[in-house]
Specification:
Layout lengths: L4 E2 L10 E2 L2 E3 L4 E4 L7 H9 L4 E4 L13 H4 L20 E4 L22 H13 L7 H15 L1 H10 L8 E4 L5 H14 L3 H9 L5 H22 L1 H9 L7 H5 L17 H6 L4 H16 L2 H8 L3 H11 E3 L1
Helix pairs in contact: 3-4, 4-12, 6-7, 8-9, 12-13
Length: 327
């Protein structure tokens, strides 16, 4: 598992200070995906007594691959568990909150008009135009565009994640996406902001992802290879179609034949090119854009955004009771 760390701060001797105290350790973690978790990883997650895995991924394409971790945290995104049988707070479970659901291109007509007072409609049209812009070829523009769209268009999933964290029975908890950087960083930013963590600490926490960039990329390569193997066995027609379109990674089979007991960053078979490593890194101006241009200018700050999505004062106070050690 890559990019796994305590939400309260990476250093036990210097946890993040916040309004009225400091964050409690050992209650909430942020993480990359668990699909490639080794037995040692799963053992550690059990030792930490994590009860709730807030999965911010879409559950589509390679984000749908099944893995051993979903034995402990059902339902699996590949559908092997009966998702209609709910698991209660306090039971080990995966709670899906797909922050980037539906964020893709759609046909655009020549002239589309939206109500300027309808924030979601305005954002959706802006998003579609951004997808088609020359600037969208830049990775940072892609991330800024996607993260703003997540906050506005998928505010229901953001609210679901936050509300899950107001129930003490769900702790200890972990939240994460594929790399534990963008969707994860967005939720961490909102949580840190509502708890009163300083802006410089919020950005510094976001930047810690770069220390795990090689590990992140290795885990993602393995996860993609696992997905193709699952397709080959369970959905051969789709697998063959992807092979014909040269969508199968050249090193997929080699990766799957590696020693999964060995930490991925030590596996000589997992090699990343410099561009792949760059895609596994974060940049401060992305989060600064979200905090200043989106949250501050459009909503009057993180609290204004949370009020807009329906996460009110009582819920925010409940979060503080759970996650903040008063001084």
């Amino acid at each position: 598992v890559a990019n796994f760390r305590d939400f309260a701060g990476p250093d036990p001797s210097a946890v993040y200070r916040c309004e009225g105290g400091h964050l409690k350790q050992g209650l909430l973690y942020r993480t990359g995906h668990w699909v490639t978790a080794t037995p040692a990883d799963l053992c550690l997650i059990r030792e930490l007594d994590v009860r709730t895995y807030l999965d911010l991924r879409n559950g589509q394409e390679f984000e749908s691959v099944d893995a051993e971790c979903f034995d402990d945290f059902p339902p699996s995104p590949n559908g092997r568990h009966d998702a209609s049988v709910p698991r209660e707070p306090g039971e080990r479970r995966r709670v899906g909150c797909p922050f980037s659901k539906g964020l893709g291109p759609r046909p655009l007509t020549g002239k589309e008009e939206v109500d300027p007072e309808d924030k979601k409609a305005v954002c959706e049209l802006w998003f579609q135009k951004q997808l088609r812009s020359e600037a969208f070829h830049d990775v940072q523009v892609q991330l800024k565009t996607s993260m703003r769209a997540m906050l506005i268009l998928n505010s229901d999933e953001v609210l679901k994640a936050l509300e899950t964290l107001t129930d003490e029975r769900n702790y200890p908890a972990a939240f994460g996406c594929t790399s534990g950087k963008d969707r994860t960083g967005l939720l961490a930013c909102l949580l840190h902001s509502v708890l009163g963590v300083k802006e410089e600490d919020i950005i510094a926490d976001y930047m810690l992802t770069n220390e795990a960039s090689y590990h992140i990329n290795a885990c993602n390569q393995i996860a993609v290879a696992m997905w193709f193997e699952e397709l080959r066995i369970c959905h051969p027609r789709k697998y063959n179609a992807l092979v014909k379109r040269n969508r199968l990674p050249a090193n997929a089979q080699q990766l799957l034949e590696g020693d999964m007991e060995t930490p991925l960053w030590e596996d000589v078979n997992v090699v990343s090119d410099p561009e792949a490593i760059k895609r596994s890194m974060v940049h401060p101006d992305i989060l600064e854009y979200i905090m200043r241009e989106v949250l501050d200018k459009e909503f009057g700050g993180a609290l204004g955004y949370l009020q807009w999505i329906g996460f009110g004062l009582e819920q925010r106070e409940r979060l503080r009771e759970i996650l903040v050690e008063s001084e």
